[in-house]
Amino acid sequence: QVQVVESGGGLVQAGGSLRLSCTASGRTFSLYAMGWFRQAPGKKRESVAGVIWSTGSTYYEDSGKGRFTISTDNAKNTVYLQMNSLKPEDTAVYYCAAALKATQAYDYWGQGTQVTVSS
Question: What pLDDT digit, counting tens, does each position of 20-60 carry?
Fold first, then answer.
């Protein structure tokens, strides 16, 4: 089992920045990947970015390319999402998730952190 806890959300004006943090605990030696997802009101949850834990390889969905940066502190089992040039359409609950090597599926989810971007 792995537990993940996000932090760092808040209210920011359009064009501003926020950094989200997510720390994993438990069977972190089994981590395969960690990812960020978001869900806006009335919309389906969507992927934002992710990182393969062992290699540091990252991926981004189109919504965040060029504006968002995912990074890790492996010693702290923490993944960050630096979000710059935020837009009102980035407003959502942001979730962190962890995938273990056994399934390579995002089976472990945090409680989410609200990001609100005002125009």
Answer: 999 999 988 899 999 999 999 999 999 999 999 999 999 99
Q: Chain-centre distance of CA 89, in angstroms? A: 16
Residue whose structure tokens are 């806006």: 40
User: Which residues neighbour 16 within 8 Å (Cβ) at sequence distance 6 or greater?
Assistant: 86, 117
Residue written as tokens 């399934």?
Answer: 103
Strand partners, 71: 80
Under a CB-based contact definition with an 8 Å cutoff, are residues 98 and 24 in contact? yes
- Contacts of residue 28, Cβ cutoff 8 Å, sequence gap at least 6: 2, 77
Angstrom distance (rounded) from CA 66 to CA 44: 23
Structure-block tokens of residue 94: 């942001």
With contact defined as beta carbons under 8 Å apart, do 98 and 2 qualify?
Answer: yes
